[in-house]
What does this fold into?
Amino acid sequence: MDAQTFLIYYKVHIGSWILLLILFGVLFVLYKWKLPFANRILRFMIWLLYIGQVTSGIAMIYAYQFPITYVIKGLISLILIYAMEVILRKTKRNRSGTSAYWFIWFVALAIVLLLGFNVGMNT
It folds into this structure.
């Protein structure tokens, strides 16, 4: 993969993460306050961002020749996406029991950010 293609995947990956976190917060607040404003549109946008993240992440892992650190980061990212989905679904249906998933979300987000920015790695 050439450098320009890799840069495109990288920017898509970073941008989709930023947008996903913003939309996750907005949709969570809308569900919490029981506001039906554009919920389906936001859910669709979140799903599109999931697809963009996963495909760009796989492309970057392929470009890096599958280093174990980034493979682990990808798996933890899938756990993070799962936690987001459970939090949103339980909040939408007014069910309790999201505290464990919030813990998983915070821990997974911290690990993904640390691995994504190479904190503590000797590279």
